[in-house]
């Protein structure tokens, strides 16, 4: 689900027209591909110059990011390697690193 309603996204894209400005306004929006496709309408897509797609993190990259986040958040040895590996696998399967970080955090509250 998008945080911004589609009408607000259109508003940002057409901001320079609203203020009758000759200056271009650059806007960077970050979204999951599935969410973006739902939000994309023909009116919005006509105003988009470039769409960059990033590859998902690899299993090793996911593990390293989760290990670093655990190191920042917890005392040493709070997060076992088994738990880290389980959270890494969940994050890799869902391709949702944010979810893995939440699992790490909320599993120790």
In short:
It contains seven helices and no strands. By secondary structure, it is mostly helical. It folds into two domains: 6-45, no CATH class; 59-106, no CATH class.
Distance between the termini: 27 Å
Average pLDDT taken over every residue: 80
Query: Which class do the helix and strand fractions yield?
Result: mainly alpha
Tally of individual helices = 7
Contiguous runs where pLDDT drops below 50 for at least 5 residues = none
User: What does the largest sheet look like?
Assistant: none
Helix content: 55-70%
Helix-strand string = HHHHHHH
**Rg over C-alpha atoms, rounded to the nearest angstrom:** 19 Å
The overall number of domains is 2
Choose one word for the global shape: elongated
Strand content: under 5%
- Structure summary, number of beta strands: 0
């Amino acid at each position: 689900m998008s945080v911004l309603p589609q009408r607000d996204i259109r508003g940002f894209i057409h901001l320079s027209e609203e203020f009758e400005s000759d200056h271009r306004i650059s806007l960077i929006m970050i979204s999951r591909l599935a969410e973006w496709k739902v939000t994309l309408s023909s009116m919005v897509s006509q105003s988009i110059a470039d769409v960059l797609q990033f590859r998902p993190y690899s299993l090793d990259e996911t593990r390293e990011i989760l290990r670093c986040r655990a190191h920042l958040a917890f005392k040493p040895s709070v997060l076992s390697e088994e738990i880290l590996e389980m959270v890494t696998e969940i994050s890799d399967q869902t391709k949702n690193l944010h979810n893995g970080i939440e699992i790490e955090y909320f599993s120790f509250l």
